[in-house]
Each structure stands twice: as structure tokens, then as C-alpha cells.
Amino acid sequence: MKIKPLRSDLKNILQRHQLEKKFLKQQRLFESNDRHPSLKTEKLKPEKLRLYSFRIDIKWRAIFIIVDGEAEIVDINPHYRQ
Q1: In Å, how far from its chain's centre is CA 78?
Q2: What's 7's DSSP letter?
Q3: Facing residues of 42 across strands?
Q4: pLDDT digits over 22-49, tens only?
Q5: Longest distance between any two alpha carbons in the chain, whole Å
Q6: pLDDT band at 79, cuts 50/70/90?
Q7: Is there a contact between 60 and 77 (Cβ–Cβ < 8 Å)?
Q8: Model's pTM, two decimal places?
């Protein structure tokens, strides 16, 4: 599944936390297999919001929605389980 281009505020989060290389690696993996085990892709609750996440690294997650068959990242934040 393709990932839509990131908004500038999300790019800033990646830069500020030095996650750019990790994100690009995970993006390539996601786009080739969005269910790859190392991504730990999951549907978030409440399920009616249709939010999903995948792992950038052990601490950070990309939160996304699916729009027209593509993933649109809406947030990048620390995972609640650290």
C-alpha cells in the first residue's frame, strides 16, 4: 500500500527526533508489505475511527488512515507502551 506524501509538520517531527532514516526504511517496508511483522501494523481503538498504526521504531509510531486505497499519515507520536 502506498503512503501519501507527508505534511510538513510531520516531516518536522521526524527531523526533530532524528527519525527520518528509520521512517524511510519502514515506509519502504510498508509499501512492499503493509502487514510485515516488524511493522506491527494494528487497527486502533475505538475501531469506528478507522485509525491504524505502524512502528517506526521501538518508541515511535505512525498513525494513519486509508484514503482511496492509500495510507495517509495523520500523526507521528510516541507509543504508549514503552
Answers
A1: 11
A2: P
A3: 53
A4: 999 999 999 999 999 999 999 999 999 9
A5: 33
A6: confident
A7: yes
A8: 0.92
pLDDT for position 28: 98
Antiparallel, parallel or unpaired: β 60-67 and 42-43: unpaired
Q: Around Cβ 54, how many Cβ atoms within 10 Å?
A: 23
pLDDT for the residue 81: 61
Distance CA 82, CA 62 (A): 15
Residue 17 cell numbers, joined: 527526533
- Sign of the C-alpha dihedral, residues 11, 12, 15, 17? negative
Q: How many residues does the chain have?
A: 82
C-alpha separations of 71 from 17, 18, 50, 76, 81 in Å:
22, 22, 12, 13, 23
Residue located via cell numbers 505512525: 62
